[in-house]
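Work Package 4 report. The design task specified in the project plan requires that, given a folded chain encoded as structure tokens, an amino acid be chosen for each position. We show below one input record used in the internal validation round.
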């Protein structure tokens, strides 16, 4: 007697399931009904409204971006509410309110976003810099007793309204005016709610070691996990600090402190994109300065060292000679240590982030360069799988998926996202591991990737055979609701 077929809305058939746990991928089917995954592996005899043939594709959880500027400002014309740039690279969940910047009224902000809709699932931190500005304006120095009490009240209110924790941007005013003791007092307010301290530290270069020590001390005193935001080592003179950075993090973890870092896979931070060569000529060797504008077309896309060789100039005089010929030359400064980045990714305490936003695609590459748009908003996750997995072997496929999905969910306390298993929300990405590729370049920073075949958000197909379908199917993630 034949078994009665199970009825599903969607079956993804014949793919390699890489489930977010870090375990080896396996051949299996994934069945979806409504907004949930209901079966994985052998899903039995079935009928489905749609079957996606995933032969040759990886079936993974949708990527969770723990450091995003999407939706930071609902009125910003350079942010797409539908989040196309994020979804096209496989991101299905984004966490904002980072770098100390967020709306102060988290409840009203999330309610508005929920009513207007979002293409991606979205959660947020409360930004300490925004809270301080609300209470103290741009006043320097420590908060007074009444001011500190009001800031603490706002932190509690933000946590009760669903914030994931408190973020800081300690290279930015006015958040940077707060001392360690003040920050400890504010972060302590998040502890009863299970909050996280996410910090853009006071330095990523000359004072990086001291900045990490401060971040860890704040987490210890406040009794909360610490997220070191977009960890990197900048400026050539500091690249030798990676051993000390790794030692501090691993010693803290060995002592029982919860610490993790998010990392994006590009060597230029946003402040080093499309900058005058004159600003950077003495800061980096010529092989770390990439020409993008202000010079003849045949030099664009070359490093200053390569341009010097093409022009027959001595490398020791490359930047000065190039500026003499083309004084308006603009460059991308590859200021972050690539070796440190790879080492951080290989560590078990790192996860993947973009530090980007869902930018609308502009008409031309030149226009995107003029706005100094960064490649990470369009290419981070394809870059990860193309460069760090397929080409360089820094990570295995399963490790890269875990650092983009399940590990992020675990660190953030998301119970129903980040894994391909029954009961999880059906946030999924299907990609070809042999062809997935970042198509952005520093000359053309807004290009959709190759190899991302399908993306699902809460059971809805929003990228279909590599083509944009869209729809605002994302959900608001409030702390404690997952």
């Amino acid at each position: 007697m034949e078994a009665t077929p199970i009825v599903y809305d969607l079956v993804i058939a014949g793919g390699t399931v890489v489930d977010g746990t870090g375990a080896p991928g396996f051949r299996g089917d994934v069945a979806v009904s409504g907004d949930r995954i209901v079966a994985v592996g052998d899903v039995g005899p079935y009928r489905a409204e749609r079957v996606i043939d995933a032969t040759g594709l990886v079936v993974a959880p949708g990527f969770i971006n723990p450091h995003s500027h999407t939706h930071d400002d609902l009125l910003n014309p350079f942010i797409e509410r539908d989040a196309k740039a994020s979804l096209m690279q496989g991101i299905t969940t984004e966490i904002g309110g980072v770098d100390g910047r967020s709306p102060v009224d988290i409840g009203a902000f999330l309610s508005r976003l929920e009513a207007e809709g979002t293409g991606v699932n979205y959660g947020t931190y409360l930004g300490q810099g925004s809270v301080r500005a609300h209470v103290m304006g741009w006043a320097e120095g420590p908060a007074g007793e009444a001011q500190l009490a009001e800031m603490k009240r706002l932190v509690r209110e933000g946590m009760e309204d669903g914030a994931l924790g408190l973020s800081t941007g300690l290279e930015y005013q006015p958040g940077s005016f707060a001392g360690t003791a003040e920050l400890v007092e504010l972060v302590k307010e998040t502890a009863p709610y299970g909050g996280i301290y996410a910090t853009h530290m006071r330095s990523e270069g000359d004072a990086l070691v001291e900045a990490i020590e401060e971040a860890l001390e704040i987490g210890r005193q406040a009794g909360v996990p610490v997220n070191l935001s977009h960890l990197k080592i900048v400026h050539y003179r500091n690249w030798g600090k990676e051993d000390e950075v790794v030692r501090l993090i691993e010693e803290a973890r060995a002592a029982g402190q919860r610490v993790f870092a998010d990392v994006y896979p590009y060597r230029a931070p946003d402040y080093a994109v499309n900058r005058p060569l004159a600003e950077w000529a003495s800061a980096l060797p010529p092989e770390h300065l990439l020409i993008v504008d202000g010079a003849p077309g045949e030099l664009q896309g070359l490093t200053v060292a390569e341009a010097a060789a093409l022009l027959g100039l001595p490398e020791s005089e490359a930047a000065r000679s190039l500026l003499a010929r083309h004084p308006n030359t603009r460059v991308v400064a590859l200021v972050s240590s690539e070796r440190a980045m790879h080492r951080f990714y290989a560590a078990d305490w790192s996860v993947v982030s973009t530090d980007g936003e869902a930018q609308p695609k502009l008409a031309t590459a030149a226009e995107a360069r003029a706005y100094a748009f960064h490649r990470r908003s369009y290419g981070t996750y394809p870059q990860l799988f193309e460069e760090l997995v397929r080409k360089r072997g820094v990570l295995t496929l399963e490790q890269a998926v875990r650092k983009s999905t399940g590990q992020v969910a675990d660190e953030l306390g998301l119970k129903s996202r980040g894994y391909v298993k029954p009961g999880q929300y059906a946030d999924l990405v299907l990609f070809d591991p042999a062809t997935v590729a970042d198509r952005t370049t520093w000359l053309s920073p807004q290009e959709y990737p190759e190899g991302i075949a399908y993306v699902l958000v809460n059971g809805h197909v929003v990228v279909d055979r590599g083509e944009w379908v869209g729809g605002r199917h994302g959900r608001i993630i409030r702390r404690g609701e997952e």
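The chain is about 30% helix and 20% strand. Validation will be extended to a larger panel in the next phase.
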